[in-house]
Amino acid sequence: MRKMVVQTIKNLFSKPVTVKYPQELSPPPPNYRGVIVYKEELCIFCTKCELVCPPGAIRFTYSEDGSKKFHYNPYLCIYCGECVRACPKEGCLTQVEETAPPATESTIPDWNGVEREAVESKKAWLAARQKRAKKS
């Protein structure tokens, strides 16, 4: 009992162990991989990153003309780095030692809508491609 009272009094006057978040940012854990950074100007749109992404945090949408658009959900990403390793173009996908911004209503993308659009646009693109192949 005496040890508990002594420890309680020590704790009253000692500095807290916790971080005062959001005033002080939490330090990243050791071996933190960081967020994925995408550079569109370097992308060759091979879609390898989409194929190897375990949680499906990367999706491509297709246009009728065959162009593709990259979509990335940092809140779904597990930061495994598979997309960075699979990318054949050096520097297109990289991991930086920054933390993802806090999720808010305005920053969270409608990922169900993006996935639906990706599937539908790919089907439409493949159908248009097959139609062009039959004409030739």
From TrEMBL:
Domain 4Fe-4S ferredoxin-type: 34-63, 68-98
PROSITE patterns for the chain: 4FE4S_FER_1, 4FE4S_FER_2
Keywords: 4Fe-4S, Iron, Iron-sulfur, Metal-binding, Repeat
GO cellular component terms, semicolon-separated: membrane
UniProt xrefs under Pfam families: Fer4_7
Protein's UniProt keywords contain 4Fe-4S: yes
Molecular functions (GO terms): 4 iron, 4 sulfur cluster binding; metal ion binding; oxidoreductase activity, acting on NAD(P)H
Protein name: NADH-ubiquinone oxidoreductase 23 kDa subunit
Species name: Thermovibrio ammonificans (strain DSM 15698 / JCM 12110 / HB-1)
